[in-house]
Amino acid sequence: MASGWRRTLGNVRSFVGNSMGGLRGGSNLASWVVAGTLAYFLWIKPSQVLRKEQEERAALNAALDRYRYVEKRKPLPDPQDNGLIRGNKRGTNKSEE
Predict the structure, then answer these.
(1) Best label site of 22, 36, 65, 70, fewest CB within 10 Å?
(2) pLDDT digits over 37-61, tens only?
(3) Does residue 26 lie within any of the structural domains?
């Protein structure tokens, strides 16, 4: 029984080691640290900086023009102009033709 869990643990360690590229020990850890650092400085940090700059610009624009009109809700469309109601559209009467 005792050898069963040891064998399972060995198989799990072997699988994890192989899935990480076959490197073992310090070189494996160092390669993951280098890859993570590169990913952070090439992808994650620039996107965070860009998002922060966009938020700052939006806040500055909102602060500069605080009395501007902002539409709070969508306007209701006229069903006649959209063709939802059958018949003559507004402004086209038979008496005018």
Answers:
(1) 70
(2) 999 999 999 999 999 999 999 888 8
(3) no
